[in-house]
Amino acid sequence: MRNDGHAENGISDAIGTQSQYARYCQDLSNIEFNGRNNWRRVNKQELSDLITSKDIVNTYGWPYQAYYATSNIVDESRVDMVTLIDGHTPYLAK
Q1: Is this prediction's pTM over 0.70?
Q2: CA-to-CA distance for 67 and 89, rounded, in angstroms?
Q3: Distances (CA, A) of 27 to 5, 6, 16, 31, 42
Q4: According to the lineage, what is the superkingdom (predicted)?
């Protein structure tokens, strides 16, 4: 599954609610995975908080050199991305 918020074929017009990432969260909600029906994409602040407060790299072994997509849409073709190394984003939301 793509982590950048785009459709599986890379077309950017699916970014947001129709992206592969968003549809996966909706599917988890529909089947009430793990007893929850409110699955959604993480926002930029929540992901940044995981880096600093939960230390998910050392505690859970998350790959820290990757960028992770957030629900924050930058423009019609990009979502904000956060790296677990330092919370850096490659571009800022408008």
Answers
A1: no
A2: 8
A3: 15, 16, 15, 6, 16
A4: Bacteria
